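Here comes my example:
=====
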Amino acid sequence: MTSMTNIEAGKELISKSMFLFGAGATRDAGCLISNEMLNDIYQMDMSKPEVEAIDFLLSSLQYHASWKNLKEKKEVNTKNGHQANIEDLMLLIRRIVNRDSYLPFPITGSWADKINFLEIEWRTTKSFQKLTPKKSLFENLEDSLIRRLYKWMRLGQEDTSYLKPLDEYLKATETNSSLLNFFTLNYDMVF
């Protein structure tokens, strides 16, 4: 049996490795993390119904997270349990936009009166009048948050120097980067 060189061993190790990137993997590239995105939402230029809708959605998500923690741990604790994040908010908005296609859901079903009231109030705003084509309050919120995501991610301004050691290693070992296996969580699809 012949022994492998360090380069061959490194190539074999890379080929058998999976790189796992969590929620903060893009942090060094200047991207905001989820709770920073939630905090930044109120910096957006929004009409009164939009602000009220965001308040309603975030309080609903907070209620759900508290209920989930209580159910799972039998204690009131939101510090160590699930907390709402930008993905939860976007999923909830998507559920509301498509609520006619879903089975009843606590926020979109039981509390639909609040959603309908906000939609009616939205149609009286100057923001709604300026829209072409006209969009529902929650369609508009979804579009606004997607546009804000580009700002949050600071596309075009990334500092990827933290990936330099991996890049240098791959070049030095002539490892084909298409063979790298990545698994990513949350919004880190920026890679």
Observations:
- Residues 11 and 174 are 9 Å apart (CA to CA).
- The chain has a mean pLDDT of 75.
- The longest strand covers residues 18-21.
